[in-house]
Amino acid sequence: MPKLFWANLYCLLDCSSGASISAREQLRALAEQGFDVRILGATVFDDEGGSAALGKVWDRIRTQPGRLVTMDDGDLTHELLITGSTRRGEVRAMEEAAWFGCYRKILESWRPDIVYFYGGQPFDYLIADEARHAGAKVAFYLVNGNYHTDRWHRDVDLVVTDTRATADLYAKRLGIAAEPVGTFIDARRVVGALHDHRHLLFVSPSFAKGGALVARLAILMESRRPHIKFEIVRGRGDWDEMLGHAFRSHDEPPHVLSNVVVTPHSADMRPVYRRARLLLAPSLWWESGSRVIIEALMNGIPAIVTAHGGSPEVQGGAGPQIGLPDTLHAAPYQRLPTDEALLPLIEEIERLYDDEEAYQAVSRQALQVAARDHDMHNNASGLASIMRALIGDESAS
Fold it and tell me: What is the C-alpha separation between 48 and 55, in angstroms, rounded?
């Protein structure tokens, strides 16, 4: 049985991080494919709300920094070093040293075949370096467009990514070959029943994800189509900040929008998807393989995406695609299209609310794309074959 060791300072139980959720589902799938999986992490989250998946246990353990705890997670077990802060940038050197000591002990005693991780900070380079010194192969999970130099790759044997778009980006930018294996989503955890197709859904408002653009849409549609409700699900960003920016950019006095409801972030998105008619996913940064797009498709919810990054690939044509000027895809992602440029998008949203036959056709297409391109079991089989081939396992197909 191949031994695979996931090791980095982030917590894979973080429900606010798409990368953590995907990696966790990958490991669950690999365990089902016959891999012996071990996980070492820490209590670092993308957002403080990401600790919600730990439930009441979090309130008990967070006051015990420096302690190594074990968390049962179905078929997986997580060993977590409790850190004084949940923010990666605030983890202290002595905490990194304590984590690294645990990591070395597991390498020496358990002797994994593969060490798998993500992270591009200098400390993370030690993970790959030490794994190679222990005789393990090193696999790296790459699901963003943020790497512009290749030091993170020096001691890595295999780069795994989710989309062909991201693989092509790094082949062109750094000459690195990455293996696209898809996104790992268990439909049973995200598909709701009895959809009522009411809301225009947007998840995790931030400038990078097009939050200010969505705020501008909501402002324009408040008087035009007040009965079309936007549901904003909180995440890393701040909806009030997005809305304030959208008003200020047009020198308009701010007010509370009557066509917007704001929902707290939840580890269980099924009730949210049950209410959604369309998903807005107008990311301005490089979105590699957005989970929320795929989860929407699994629910038969068409997705409106920007023609940028991996979003068109995962959406598969099941909804409109927005072409924006390159200037809008540049950090800090605060530029907005003109109101006139947003009019065709508004008209397309209205069409998919008013024309039920057209809506049902694209809803069926969403389900077809989800079944064809995003089946977790197919993706798991491909990933397992790649991992087995990395270590020369004769059972690799």
Answer: 13
Strand order in the sheet with 276-281: 260-263, 230-233, 199-203, 276-281, 303-306, 321-322
What is the C-alpha separation between 164 and 65, in angstroms, rounded?
40
DSSP letters along 334-368, please?
-----HHHHHHHHHHHHHHHH-HHHHHHHHHHHHH
* Axis-axis angle for helices 122-133, 93-110 (nearest 10): 20
How far is 80 from 71, CA to CA, in rounded Å? 8
Contacts of 313 (CB under 8 A, 6+ apart): 163, 164, 165, 289
Which two tokens mark 351?
């069409």
In the chain, % helix, strand, coil (3-state, to 5) comes to 45, 15, 40
* Ramachandran sector of residue 392 (left: φ over 0; alpha: ψ -120 to 50; beta: rest): left
Dig out the tokens for 107 from the structure.
């390498």
Whole-angstrom CA distances from 369 to 202, 362, 375 are 20, 10, 10
Note whether 211 and 205 are within 8 A (CB): yes
Decide the pairing of beta strands 76-81 and 158-161: unpaired
Dist. CA 338–CA 389, nearest whole Å: 51
Q: 6-15, pLDDT tens digit by residue?
A: 999 999 999 8
pLDDT of residue 395: 58
| Mean pLDDT for the chain overall | 95
